[in-house]
Amino acid sequence: MGQVVVISTGGTIASRWQGSGFAADARGGDVLATAAVPEGVTVRVVDLMSVNSARLTTRDQLALLRAVHEVLADPDVDGVVVTHGTDTLEESAFFLDLHHDDPRPVVLTGAQRPLEAPDGDGPRNLHDALLTAATEAARGMGVLVVFAGQVHAARGTIKVQTLAADAFADPSGSPVAEVKDGRVLVLRQPERPGPLPVPPADVVLPRVDIVTHHCDADPLLFNAAVGAGAQGIALVATGAGNATPEVVAAVEAAIARGVLVAVTTRVPAGPVAEIYTHGGAVDLAAAGAVLTGTLRAGQARIAVLAAALASGDPAGRARALRHAVGGAGTAEA
Ligand code: ASP
């Protein structure tokens, strides 16, 4: 069927008992040895790192992006699988997807149960990811997340279970394919904007923070992020994207200083929308913040990060952010 390269980064799928708890320490070859390789698929492993994904940095995610692009520079490769911790898998998947400029699939997977668990979910997930990466029908679908028999588009997909095996879903959408009886059945094509350019090796890494609104919240933490040098902030608002007049004033002042502000919501599903004033999304948008549709906090932050990496000037960054957030089209960053 084809040649697949597995890029191993760690996570529970590569975790062993450390005496007091589990942590990633296995190499990609050990992880691959647990899974049945689909017939006709040949696999090469790249050991990029072995860490729990809560520890990942922008530098690590850029290293992963470059590793994927290096692997795909080989025309004999049919697809890529990235084994990754589930905690921040949605962030790396979306970061890769925003920069993915190749029809060949990149598939992220992991596990909720550790490497040597007798009833582990890693072997099945890895098998299904290999099958998806080698499948002709998955071409053109961008970066995918394969977990518990389901195939999700990177965009919009989040971790929805802390412990259960069906860990991922798009709460505002549906899977794009499923793996059944050893086959990948495509259900729909994901909507993806054109790719952003891969940042140059010497790009300066911007600080991008997340601030959550709640009852009794004042702008102190938002302003602290600006004071800490944040070049972008994802504001996790309430409801359809609402906060207070005081927060709106802080957002306006930050944007005047060149800070990119994106608005997402604490609610699990549905888009943010310009409905309310007196501190609501109507006012946040008027202040220059970008509403992020159905992206949740981690991915809204990644959209801001990608925009900050794509351009040096505030107007270019705002354009890149709108592009990253929106449906189809071409990058004009
Ligand atoms: N619980 C995580 C996992 O499933 C740990 C991590 O994200 O690395 O892999």
Per DSSP E runs of 2 or more residues, the count of β-strands stands at 16
Strand-pairing-aware structural class: alpha/beta
Parts with pLDDT < 50 across at least 5 consecutive residues:
328-333
At the first level of CATH, what is the class of the largest domain?
A: Alpha Beta
Distance between the termini: 37 Å
CATH architecture title of the largest domain:
3-Layer(aba) Sandwich
How much of the sequence lies in strands comes to 15-25%
Q: What's the helix-strand series? A: EEEHEHEHEHEEEEEEEHEHEHEHH
Taking all residues together, what is the mean pLDDT?
Answer: 96
- Classified in CATH, the superfamily of the largest domain is L-asparaginase, N-terminal domain
Tertiary shape: globular
Counted by DSSP, the helix tally is 9
Bound molecules: aspartic acid
Radius of gyration of CA atoms, rounded to a whole number = 20 Å
Kindly report the CATH topology of the largest domain: Rossmann fold
The number of domains: 2
Structure overview:
This protein has helices spanning 28-32, 58-72, 89-98, 122-134, 220-227, 245-256, 281-286, 297-310, 314-325, and strands at 2-10, 15-17, 22-24, 41-51, 79-83, 106-109, 143-147, 150-153, 158-159, 168-169, 177-180, 183-186, 208-212, 232-237, 260-265, 290-291. It has 333 residues and is α/β, with parallel strands linked by helices. The protein folds into 2 domains: 3-186, Rossmann fold (3-Layer(aba) Sandwich); 208-329, 3-Layer(aba) Sandwich (Rossmann fold), CATH 3.40.50.40. The strands form 4 sheets. It has an 8-stranded mixed sheet, sandwiched between helices. The chain has a 4-stranded parallel sheet with strand order 13-14-15-16. α7 (281-286) links the parallel β15 (260-265) and β16 (290-291). Residues 10-12, 24, 52-54, 85-87, 110, 112 line the site of aspartic acid. Aspartic acid binds at residues 10-12, 24, 52-54, 85-87, 110, 112.
